[in-house]
């Protein structure tokens, strides 16, 4: 299969390896972490040790982990580190050696618990890099509208994006969903019924872009609210679902305080809803919500803000994304429309949130000021928000 270079993530990892004895590269399964690690290893001077912690042979080498790892030199890559959190105390000892004969690159597909465990045990010794599936600039979607449209339909997982045709892409996504449920979700939950877990994931797809209501979802599925939260935590922790928190200050207004739910990969979202091709997607009532969620993920991937929120009032005013960009209070609205116009909601957001600028990201091709603080911006140019 063709491999697409990922220079941004490679630079982030290599910079982190120069600064810290341990680097954790975290992201969803099959997003390209192992491929990137092997590319870095191939060009790195000195010895390289690559261990897959789901391989019986590699696990056998770690029967005495401190003894084995202390003998390694150069770069040591530990793939699927979430399966062996017991290695963190060992890595802490090895990271503190004065001569620093080795750097450790940890690859993991579960967060935030994995990140929390590593940060606690390896405090002051570990640097984190979060990796996502392909984004617009990596696939040419920032300059080619057809590639942008294909990325929206197929999603950004490398094997889905690079598949030879639409049928092969969908087949990969269907298989990924099934194996992911069996390997990554069912093993983390007392509910081992993969069919029930798939129904939960499909139900979340119908809540995509909406305010999350655990009690309502529990009633629809005939399960308890606690079970809903457990399952949501696992899907969020494995990067399948984004739980976007609300921003609330003491505005003196009735602010929405429940989070919004998004499926992070548009291709998996379409597979779960049975949207098998472009025509099915365009004729679906979920097309607008799908594009807006896709645009949100693509924008976050290029801006990489430390934190992000949405804001909404019970009276109806809202902004899809609120974050601090270079110290500026920035609002972003995502509109699946050829000619978005300003709304009362946008002006309310600017006034209440004291926004420096509000960007309206849309699928068109032209940048246009709508007011002195509101600018229309094509999704393909979302990176300009941080300029």
What does this structure look like?
This protein has 387 residues and is of the alpha/beta class. It has two domains: 7-130, 3-Layer(aba) Sandwich (Rossmann fold), CATH 3.40.50.300; 136-386, no CATH class. It has 17 helices and 14 strands. The strands form three sheets. A six-stranded mixed sheet has the order 9-10-11-12-14-13. The protein has a five-stranded parallel sheet with strand order 2-3-4-1-5, sandwiched between helices. Strand 3 (74-79), helix 5 (88-95) and strand 4 (102-108) form a beta-alpha-beta unit. It is globular and about 65 Å long. The two termini are 35 Å apart. The mean pLDDT is 91.
Compile the SSE list and pairings:
Elements: H1 7-19, E1 22-26, H2 33-42, E2 48-52, H3 56-61, H4 65-70, E3 74-79, H5 88-95, E4 102-108, H6 113-121, E5 126-130, H7 136-139, H8 145-154, H9 158-161, H10 166-185, H11 194-206, E6 210-211, H12 214-221, H13 225-237, E7 241-244, E8 260-263, H14 266-272, H15 278-282, H16 287-303, E9 309-312, E10 318-325, E11 328-334, H17 344-353, E12 357-362, E13 368-369, E14 374-378
Parallel strand pairs: 1-4, 1-5, 2-3, 3-4, 11-12, 12-14
Antiparallel strand pairs: 6-8, 7-8, 9-10, 10-11, 13-14
Helix pairs in contact: 8-14, 10-14, 12-13
Largest sheet composition: 6 strands, mixed
The percentage of residues in β strands lies in 15-25%
What is the helix content?
40-55%
- The end-to-end distance, rounded to whole angstroms, is 35 Å
Compute the number of helices.
17
Total strands: 14
**Global shape:** globular
CA radius of gyration is 22 Å
Which strands sit side by side, in order, in the main sheet?
9-10-11-12-14-13
Counted up, domains total 2
- In terms of per-residue confidence, which ranges show pLDDT below 50 for 5 or more consecutive residues? none
Q: Whole-number average pLDDT?
A: 91
Task: Give the structural class.
Answer: alpha/beta
């Amino acid at each position: 299969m063709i491999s697409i270079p990922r220079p941004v993530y490679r630079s982030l990892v290599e910079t982190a390896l120069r600064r810290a004895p341990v680097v954790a590269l975290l992201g969803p399964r099959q997003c390209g972490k192992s491929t990137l690690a092997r590319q870095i290893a191939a060009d790195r001077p000195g010895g390289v040790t690559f261990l897959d912690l789901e391989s019986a042979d590699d696990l056998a080498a770690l029967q005495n982990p401190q003894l084995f790892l202390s003998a390694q030199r150069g770069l040591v890559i530990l793939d699927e580190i979430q399966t062996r959190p017991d290695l963190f105390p060992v890595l802490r000892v090895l990271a503190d050696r004065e001569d620093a004969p080795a750097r450790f690159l940890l690859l993991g597909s579960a967060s935030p618990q994995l990140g929390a465990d590593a940060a606690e045990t390896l405090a002051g010794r570990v640097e984190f890099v979060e990796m996502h599936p392909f984004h617009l600039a990596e696939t040419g979607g920032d300059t080619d509208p057809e590639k942008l449209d294909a990325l929206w339909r197929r999603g950004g997982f490398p094997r889905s994006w690079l598949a030879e045709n639409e049928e092969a892409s969908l087949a990969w996504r269907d298989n990924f969903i099934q194996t992911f449920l069996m390997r990554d979700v069912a093993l983390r939950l007392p509910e081992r019924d993969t069919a029930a877990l798939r129904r939960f994931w499909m139900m979340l797809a119908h809540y995509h872009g909406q305010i999350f209501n655990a009690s309502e979802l529990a009633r629809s599925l005939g399960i308890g609210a606690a079970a809903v939260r457990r399952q949501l935590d696992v899907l969020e922790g494995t990067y399948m679902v984004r739980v976007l928190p609300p921003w609330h200050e003491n505005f003196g207004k009735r602010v929405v305080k429940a989070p919004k739910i998004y499926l992070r990969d548009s291709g998996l979202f379409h597979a779960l809803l049975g949207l098998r091709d472009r025509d099915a997607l365009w004729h679906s009532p979920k097309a607008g919500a799908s594009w807006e969620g896709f645009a949100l993920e693509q924008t976050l991937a290029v801006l990489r803000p430390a934190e992000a929120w949405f804001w909404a009032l019970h009276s109806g005013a809202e902004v899809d994304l609120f974050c601090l960009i270079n110290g500026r209070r920035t609002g972003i609205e995502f509109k699946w429309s050829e000619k978005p116009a300003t709304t009362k909601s946008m002006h309310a957001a600017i006034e209440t949130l004291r926004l420096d600028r509000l960007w309206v990201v849309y699928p068109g091709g032209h940048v246009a000021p709508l007011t002195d603080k509101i600018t229309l911006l094509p999704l393909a140019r979302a990176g300009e928000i941080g300029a």
